[in-house]
Amino acid sequence: MESRKSLFLWVSMIVFILHFKTLSVRGLGVNWGTRASHPLSPNIVVKLMKDNGFDKVKLFEAEPEVLDALRNSGLQVMLGIPNDFLAPLASGVRVAEDWVAKNVSAYVSRGVDIRYVAVGNEPFLKTYKNMFTNATLPALQNIQAALIKAGLGRQVKITVPLNADVYESNSGVPSEGNFRSDIHSLMISIIQFLSDNAAPLTINIYPFLSLYADPHFPIDFAFFAGTNAPVVDGTISYTNVFDANYDTLVWALEKNGFPGMPVIVGEIGWPTDGDQNANLGYARKFNQGLISRIIQGQGTPKRKTPPDVYIFGLIDEDRKSIDPGNFERHWGVFNYDGTVKYRLDLGSNNRTLVSAKGVRYLSRQWCVMAEGASESDPNLADSVKYACTYADCTSLGYGSSCNGLDARGNASYAFNQYFQTFNQQKGTCDFHNLSIVTKIQPTIGMSDCKYEIMIDVGKHEKPRNPVTSMAALGWRLQDLSYSGVVAVILSFIISWVS
Question: Is 176 noted as a catalytic residue in this protein?
Fold first, then answer.
């Protein structure tokens, strides 16, 4: 009897823990991009996601090391296909079958929980000038056929991540929403195909870009705290751009015969550097507002149930293209090394973000402008330009975190970025006798500007991830609702005690 009472208490504690887990973020995913000069070990990144409560991850391409690290992780995966693959995939179903066999079937069989294949990434952006317009639907159809042939048609769903510019409202109110006239018929065909295969539509929504594109955009409308100038649409007052944007899509779907079409928000977030409105304060404000809505189960006026959301992004990427703006390399909730940028309340027992574990760094040394070097040296400007051509200097741009440095500070920052990017190798701090290696950490005087030391990609510690019976149980129970888990455990308790 005593042993049964002990077991009763033990299992009750599990139920209690599960209860608190349900008060934290559920249905929260994150985008994991890998365009970095010194990417973290995939094993460390997977542990980072799990430690911070992300249960879904969206990948932009199939990378073997990344997919291997996700084996038996319990993370649900949306696996992306780059736009450059669309034309080959559209050319014939055999190409799609080969891709699915290599990148989906092979990893599903090894314990990677792939739930979606994202065919392309925002292929209908106007800046692409119809480059991918004709290939997207055939590629989608061929991937679906390949998944069915592989026996994965029910387990793995197709989708197409689209930018929110595929729909619009001429009057600015959501109820006037419809799909862009130049791709209207194509959008209907894609949505019909997704619907026929019980697959969702994926939309990327970026309130930051609304502010970036229009200096007169009301800044408080970009966040979730309300506004003094709401967008009034009939009886509904929209107080933030996300609700208005998302409901514009919902209206467009309803008008075209798809009122129940499931929608995933594939990308949404706020950058922390590279622009005057890209900073830690605004990023925290936006992402905290977003996460709080998810915790509370808050949807939009047109759809009361919140969609699955994938925050963009997980970690900063210093090799991303900056054609859209310097902010492109600073979307991460975490810094390049997996350290926390800012506090986020994750909703249960004061839970907040935690940094990556097992990260190793290069030696504690920096490359800076030599004390005796002159700011008027004719080689200085070209040396800084050279350093910033091959290393990331976006933090020096207008409105960015290091924008206030003087000439010597700018040069030191650029030299150090180059030195760190090339692993502190001999000769990488040689800028016409203008620079010197120092083991004394440079002072800046600006709280958000730092002379970094790069991580050592050859010395990552592999976090332990022991497989226990309870861990296996948790993995099997992950698809059950909280009430389902509790019901199973309680029925076990009652049968045992009785």
Answer: no
